[in-house]
TrEMBL record, chains A, B:
CDD domains (alphabetical): bact_SoxC_Moco (cd02113)
One BP annotation, GO: sulfur compound metabolic process
Organism: Phreatobacter cathodiphilus
The protein, known as: Sulfite dehydrogenase
Keyword entries, A-Z: Metal-binding, Molybdenum, Oxidoreductase
Gene3D superfamilies recorded: 2.60.40.650, Oxidoreductase, molybdopterin-binding domain
NCBIfam families: sulfite_DH_soxC (TIGR04555)
Ranges of residues in domain Oxidoreductase molybdopterin-binding: 112-274
Entries under PANTHER family matching the protein: SULFITE OXIDASE, MITOCHONDRIAL, SULFITE REDUCTASE
């Protein structure tokens, strides 16, 4: 199948490339001989710019950074969303990324008291409460425990897509779904440290506390802490980034993001939840009748089409690649369906790359676009059989008072000119 | 099992943490009440620095960077190694990393004419030679082809560990083994583009050409190009880095690094190899009798212990974690053996994380160190049954004239004080 624009571009591009050879550049490298182009070609100059002169050598950047032509690929915030940037959030540019791993420099940020700049040699992690032996560990101590593990897990803020409950339509998947990232973590099971301290038989809950100025605290069931929580010091192969909890953070696979306490300084063992501020006045789902859902820890199956999307419109008719991400806090993604007509007809997407439990999963649909208007949706199904609901199905059950746990199906309207917008359909 | 230092640190650390609570910080956050410390504790001040004041808010760094305390984690070069930095190499800090993925900013660099700073909108990829229809593609064209794929592959320079042939002993795995990295790539099979252009029946070889000022060119058997080579534009989820070939590079899984042509501008199809400079005067293995091994494409199974190593000595007796990396250009790693006594006794290492074909694989050995001198070695076995050889076994066959394809077993001598050095043993 030949992309139509490709064919059109071939001729122009080929002249350019031939001219490039004629200019002696390809000749130098390969001995290729080609006649100079019939007419001057703009490509000749632009190619010469980077092929005629020496570029920067090694060590120009001992720690590398993206190309000057990728400056638009950044985290972005919404200034009206919060009163201050020290207690605020920004968003991962999902529409600019591919595969399943989020680059560390682009993982969305959520702070409640700004980024703690911790000197790792002076940081301590305390285990106290209902334990036989309260303990305090240095970061170096943690790295000496047996059973070190590596896992890729998604972290999603409970408020991700929260502005969509009442139909606010932020124009871009970065803003509607960008409070999620997916990272490789290196660390040890929290169970290893709890076993070290000796958890008392009447223990039922854990309190995780951060060392930042907000002293973020969340209550976590002991059962989850013993099952798969990790104490980690590394993300994507290198040390945690400051905004992600350097030097130590808690990983709570599949559960809402603010339980993954950053700058982790203390785990207290108790027999009941603490009902801290960030699990009562915040991170609680207020229902239509004024009651609240208590402790909605798990992030249910969800998906979003990242391309096309409002920040990444369609530019060409003919062959195109639709791409997106799916994830579930209950395990692996088993299938992703995509609709181009607002949910009337569905096709299964092609899932590529590793399908890991509680990790972002990448899907593609290779399709031809003839310029017709489209209503693009995606629907995730996880290995428990759970099917991602529509927003209306969610609203029927949960009302529109909450800002948390909106995993409803998102709709992108693609216009005939390729521009794409965030819309609500019945 | 209790790390001995941990127990010692507990008391001191616990006082510090209690003092921290007494200082009212933990109290603010958790309601925890604790008596002020009996004596002033150094931790109080240092903790207060980051817990008492607001840190940077979101968007302080739209594209994030590592902590100020991680400035030592960088690529490093060896100035005497090459005449200029535009045609030189630097090294991945393997001893500072964990897991299997190399952060993009720390992937070693190898340039032959410096870093081409290519404007992606003006870049073209030409397919010419023995094809029915020569074609030129823009980067946007490439992203519209069906069948986009994601794979993690190691890239190793053929000269990695080359200075070890004659027993030069650079003091650190960054320098002895750091010309390797492991990255997630997103792109399309090269076969897709060759099929588009229509490869003639007499075609047998491909020439890959780069758009940098060195016009790097390598001959690649057509069979390999059709089997698993990729044309990629993304690494670790984001655009390729300039020093890694932005905007387009060739991926040649399991084969020597300089065939993975960066800044890829042309694929020529031919009926025989071109014998370019970088595959004759360079990247050819000179044997003891003066003859050369022709086209040694595959990188054989290899491994290295990254911790402990000369740049990462042992600091504590008692529990420690030995860690390292193994890889094979012929497929998956099936086992890694580790010796602590210079190869007399071996134990199988614990492999953690995904074991992917032609990808770095992470291994660990949890061990207790009583302070005795150790001769640490690792030995990789791949799924074909190939066993990583000793350096002497390699020298018997290949002599010491070559600088390429040294996959011999590395030895680290750990002294009683924990300092570690690169040594040769019989």
């Amino acid at each position: 199948m030949t992309p139509r624009e490709t064919t059109r571009l071939d001729r122009r591009g080929f002249l350019g490339a031939a001219g490039l050879a004629g200019a002696g550049l390809a000749a130098t490298a390969t001995g290729l001989r080609a006649a100079p182009p019939a007419a001057p070609d703009p490509l000749i100059t632009t190619v010469q710019d980077w092929a005629r002169t020496l570029g920067d050598g090694v060590q120009a950047r001992p720690y590398g950074s993206p190309s000057q032509y990728e400056k638009h690929v950044v985290r972005r915030d919404v200034e009206w969303l919060t009163a201050s940037r020290e207690s605020s959030v920004n968003f991962t540019p999902l529409h600019e990324l591919d595969g399943i791993i989020t680059p560390s420099g682009l993982c969305f940020e959520r702070h409640h008291g700004g980024i703690a700049e911790i000197e790792p040699g002076k940081h301590r992690l305390m285990i106290n409460g209902l334990v036989d032996k309260p303990m305090v560990f240095t970061v170096e101590d943690l790295k000496r425990f047996p059973g070190r593990q590596n896992h890729a897990y998604f972290l999603e803020c409970a408020a991700n897509s929260g502005m969509e409950w009442r139909g606010a339509q932020l124009n871009g998947c970065q803003f509607t779904h960008g409070m999620v990232h997916n990272v490789w973590y290196t660390g040890i099971p929290l169970k290893t440290l709890l076993d070290e301290a000796g958890v008392r038989t009447n223990a039922k809950w854990l309190l995780a506390e951060g060392a930042d100025s907000s002293g973020m605290t969340r209550s976590i069931p002991l059962e989850k802490g013993l099952k798969d929580c990790l104490v980690v010091w590394s993300m994507n192969g290198e040390a945690l980034r400051p905004e992600q909890g350097y030097p130590v953070r808690l990983v709570v696979p599949g559960w809402e993001g603010n339980m993954w306490v950053k700058w982790l300084r203390r785990i207290e063992v108790g027999d009941q939840p603490w009902h801290q501020r960030e699990e009562t006045s915040k991170y609680t789902d207020l229902l239509a009748d004024g009651r609240s859902r208590r402790f909605t820890f798990v992030m249910d199956a969800k998906s979003v089409v990242t391309n096309p999307s409002p920040q990444a419109p369609l530019k060409h008719k003919g062959p195109n690649v639709l791409s997106g991400l799916a994830w579930s806090g209950r395990g692996r993604i088993s299938r992703v369906d995509v609709s181009l007509d607002g949910g009337r007809n569905w096709r299964s997407a092609r899932i590529d790359g590793p399908v890991l439990p509680m990790s972002l999963t990448r899907f593609y649909v290779d399709f031809d676009w003839n310029g017709q208007e489209m209503m693009i949706q995606s629907r995730a199904i996880d290995e428990t059989g759970y099917v991602q609901p529509t927003k209306d199905e969610l609203r029927k059950v949960r009302g529109v008072n909450s800002i948390y746990h909106n995993n409803g199906i998102q709709t992108w309207l693609v216009h005939a000119n390729g521009e794409t917008e965030n819309v609500e359909i019945g």
